[in-house]
Amino acid sequence: MRHWLRSFLSPAAVCVWYAGACVSFAQPPPNLPPTYIPQTKFWSGQDVVPVYEGWLRNPDGTFTMVFGYFNRNYREELVIPPGPDNHLDPGPADQGQPTFFAPRRQRWVFRVNVPADWGPKELVWTLTAHGRTEKVYGQLLREQEIIERLIMSRGNLSPGLDDPNKPPTIAIEPAGVAAVSRPLALTALVTDDGLPTPPVPKARPEVEPGKAQTNNSVTRRYGLSVQWLEYRGPAKVTFDYDDRIAVKDGKAVTMARFTEPGTYQLQATASDGSLSTTASVTIKVDR
């Protein structure tokens, strides 16, 4: 057959024929789901995976298990109230876990305290969304012990425990009356030790046209700033900022807009660029 191909086809045509044959054999079977392609991104329709981040050792002998989650969607934000689709075992279904799930990976979101005699038992968090159930099992395994600084540094212990930098402190001013018809001002009061030194953005040096390819854009870096995350609520809360809020004169102010009445719990995280601290506020929204 190869001799026949060489007789009737040019070398280029033979290469094309072989490439087509290889592609036809490399194609996946047609009955595989769309998720077979690892590059596929889903805006919506996917589930939420609970994540066990590890456990903390408390001074009184008890322990704290720390959890996060991974919303597989790139855009869809899910509301899953406590109950059959969002519960922890053993114990009551509602143990303070989040009910609003922002897209993608959210780390170190909530904590559950367990007694000193917890032993080898498991704490199971179950989430069901779009017909799919995911579970995570929390245990006091030695290799899963973490320290508070790991959470403050968002997983980065560098430059180490002897770093003189202290995390910022944050408190949230009492909010006014919230309603669906009007936005609510949220003010975070933040203090810090001034470390690390706030970065100063520097523009790349200009190069004469035609001599080299260059990027003159300024890399945007932040010093002391605040970010908000919706933790619980019956619907999405919209905040009036794009990335994060710079702290000015000890305050970071934004507006929150609500689309449905109910009780909301919001988290504000203050970061100095190296360490962070989180505070929560509960808001009741009237119609």
The chain-level mean pLDDT equals 85
At the fold tier of CATH, the topology name of the domain at 169-198 and 217-286 is Immunoglobulin-like
CATH class of the domain at 169-198 and 217-286: Mainly Beta
Q: How does the overall form come out from the CA principal axes?
A: globular
CATH superfamily of the domain at 169-198 and 217-286: Uncharacterised protein PF12988, DUF3872
The computed structural class is mainly beta
Helix fraction bin: under 10%
In total, the number of strands is: 17
Largest sheet: 5 strands, mixed
How many helices in DSSP terms? 3
Ranges with pLDDT <50 over ≥5 residues? 1-30, 216-220
CATH-defined architecture of the domain at 169-198 and 217-286? Sandwich
String of helices and strands: HHEEEEEEEEHEEEEEEEEE
> Ends: how far apart?
78 Å
Q: How big a fraction of the residues is strand?
A: 35-45%
Strand order of the largest sheet: 10-17-16-12-14
Can you offer a commentary on this structure?
The N and C termini lie far apart (78 Å). The protein has 287 residues and is mainly β. Among the domains are: 99 residues, no CATH class; 100 residues, Uncharacterised protein PF12988, DUF3872 (Immunoglobulin-like, Sandwich). The protein is built from three helices and 17 strands. The strands form five sheets. Strands 10-17-16-12-14 form a five-stranded mixed sheet, with no helix packed on it.
